[in-house]
Design a protein that fits this description.
Elements (H helix, E strand, L loop, with lengths): L15 E4 L2 E3 L2 H13 L6 E4 L2 E7 L5 H8 L2 E11 L6 E4 L2 E7 L4 H21 L1
Parallel strand pairs: 1-5, 2-5, 3-7
Antiparallel strand pairs: 3-4, 4-5, 6-7
């Protein structure tokens, strides 16, 4: 490429996130789930926004159908686990280990996801009362 040639950057955020399964944990039980993931050798990073701590497991677009949907802006997450956590903290302690927590409040997709999760928690709480 010559110096005068520029690469065109196109930002195309997802139009939809399809969550196939979600589960609300208490903060203590979520920590236990993190501990199990850590002890299995997988890396763990938690995300926080809108008073919600969450972790998600995306489906890799490894079939033609999933890839087509992915390119259309539809992303699939096989599951999301979350707990309400009103205040952000840069990490949480799990079985003597610290799990980093990334504040994604400024990321529009993650912020909307956290808001949706919080709404589900509120609906569940109101249904019990």
């Amino acid at each position: 490429m010559g110096e005068k040639e520029k690469v065109k950057i196109i930002y195309q955020p997802p139009k939809e996130i399809v969550i196939l399964d979600y589960f609300q944990f208490s903060k203590e039980n979520l920590s236990q789930m993190f501990a199990k993931i850590i002890h299995s050798g997988l890396p763990v990073v938690a995300y926080w926004a809108e008073g919600v701590l969450f972790i998600y497991f995306p489906l890799t677009p490894d079939t033609n159908d999933l890839m087509e949907k992915y390119l259309e802006g539809r992303i699939y997450w096989s599951s999301v686990n979350f707990a309400l956590m009103p205040k952000y903290a840069p990490s949480i302690k799990v079985s003597g280990l610290e799990v980093p927590v990334v504040n994604v409040s400024e990321h529009p997709v993650m912020r909307e996801t956290a808001r949706w999760l919080r709404e589900q928690a509120e609906k569940r709480k109101n249904a019990k009362n």
